Amino acid sequence: MRAFLERQKYLIDYTLAALLRRKTRNLGLLLVYTLLVFLFASVLLLSQGLRREATLLLQDAPEVIVQRLVAGRHDLLPAAWLDTLRRIRGVASARGRLWGYYYDPAVKANYTLMAAPERGLAADEIVIGAALARVRQIGVGDYLSLRATDGRPLPLKITGVLESASELLSADLLLLSDAGFRQLFQLPPEVYTDAVLAVRNPREAVTVAGKIALALPASRPILRAEILRTYDAVFHWREGMVFVALGSLPLAFLILAWDKAAGLSAEEKREIGILKAIGWETGDILRMKLWEGALLSLTAFLAGYLLAWWQVFYGGARLFAPVLKGWAVLYPDFRLTPAVDLQQVLVLLAVTVLPYIVATLIPGWRAAIVDPDAAMRG
Amino acid sequence: MLLRRCPHPRMANVALTLLAILLLLFGLTLADAAWRSRSTDRATNRALVRELGLTDLSLFTEARYTRHPSQADRHSPFQDHPAALDHFPTGTLLPPPPGLTPSSR
């Protein structure tokens, strides 16, 4: 065993000395390789982290949401619908919600406005999200003036700022009273944005949704399961953000692997010829090439993965901010809880490390089976 | 003293030590994930979701169908006119909700 280990160490010594002879080329290769793994792993970790966060947080989302559709668009829901909904067998409760969007031309940002009757706010009081407070540089006690639908300015006193820890959910939220919401958007009292339902038996939610569609044909029921499925799809590693990285990654990796697989340089071939001439066996050459591929690709994989981990879970995924942000002004400052899917890490390992090792081994083997004399002569 | 004893550390030992450190750090990421997922308190956030009936993450705030993808209807990305193109950058990152695509039906 000791002799075996010592033999491997000598092979590594030789491999490293050979790699260092072409220092610039190999360091450049290591750097590009690390960068590729870093990008790919960052997308993977961010998607996993966001998907897990969405799944854990949104499991308390409303069981059923009912919207009214007019000409295929979401429209205001008449209050009379609530009674119809309450009468449907299996529905435990139904309440109307008021929410909408407000574009603030002062900072060119979209806010999500929501009536929060449980907060006991007065008509001129609001609670705002932490990102909104940061962008507008306002806090408790300040006034935020919004332009009502009739053009009049509506000064609203900030009585609270939502916790910064909840920014992933509430970055752009602005909570106000029912009266304040109706006053701002000039809504009549008998309409709501949508309705949220609690179902007696959650397993019957699909049946209840079917009954709602029958009782109110212009309605669109949305189940909690559908919300969770939406987020699973949005952050699935094969979809969404991963396209950004996937577009360029296979191409870059192909060039990298092609460069190796296309063959060894004349110098490297002569080197293998000399090694064979002084007594190295084909097996030794292959082991040496295996170490070369493994050392380089494993170092690149681990370094790239660790950098991605730090960037996504400790650096606030700043690299992806411009991509995620789009034209948005309000962007949550969030820290994701690390989530690892070992299967995906293994796939990443297989996709990045194995092709490189194979691409190193094959030309090495082809050079090793040539007669040493012919190899040395080139 | 230690440096005087081995002025030129063997390259294989340096490489294997570096690889071992990287592997150890990789192992630590797994431990970090396990530990932090157990210690993270989501109670406040979940209470906010329950209280307000929140349905979406506030991640893409640029358009209403990206802010609330689970609540968007089929037409919202093309809201300007019937043949309008979806022009918000994050619209290209978000696939349509599975409930609205033909494959899920």
Q: What overall geometry of chain A do the principal axes of the alpha carbons give?
A: elongated
**Strand arrangement in the largest pleated sheet of chain A:** 5-6-10-7-9-8
As a percent range, the share of strand residues of chain B is under 5%
Major beta-sheet overview of chain A: 6 strands, mixed
The biggest sheet of chain B amounts to: none
- What Rg of chain B is obtained from the alpha carbons, in whole angstroms? 26 Å
Amount of beta strand of chain A: 15-25%
Detail the poorly predicted runs of chain A. none
What do the pLDDT scores of chain A average to?
88
Structural class of chain A: alpha+beta
User: What's the helix count of chain A?
Assistant: 15
* Structure class of chain B: mainly alpha
> Unreliable runs of chain B, pLDDT <50, ≥5 residues?
none
DSSP summary, beta strand count of chain A: 13
Helix content of chain B: 40-55%
Q: Which series of helices and strands of chain A comes N to C?
A: HHEEEHEEEEHEEHEHEEHEHHHHHHHH
Descriptive report:
The complex is a heterodimer of chains A (378) and B (105). Chain A is 54% helix and 18% strand. Chain A has helices at residues 2-21, 23-57, 80-87, 130-136, 167-170, 178-185, 205-215, 224-234, 242-246, 249-261, 266-277, 282-314, 321-325, 342-368, 372-377, and strands spanning 64-70, 73-75, 77-78, 91-97, 99-104, 109-115, 125-128, 143-147, 153-161, 173-176, 191-192, 194-199, 219-223. In chain A, the strands form 3 sheets. Chain A has a 6-stranded mixed sheet with strand order 5-6-10-7-9-8. In chain A, strands 1, 2, 4, 12 and 13 form a 5-stranded antiparallel sheet that branches. In chain A, a hairpin with a 4-residue loop joins strand 5 and strand 6 (109-115). The model of chain A has no long low-confidence stretch (mean pLDDT 88). By secondary structure, chain B is an all-alpha fold. Chain B has 4 helices and no strands. In chain B, 29% of the residues are buried. The mean pLDDT of chain B is 81. Classes of the chains: A alpha+beta (378), B mainly alpha (105).
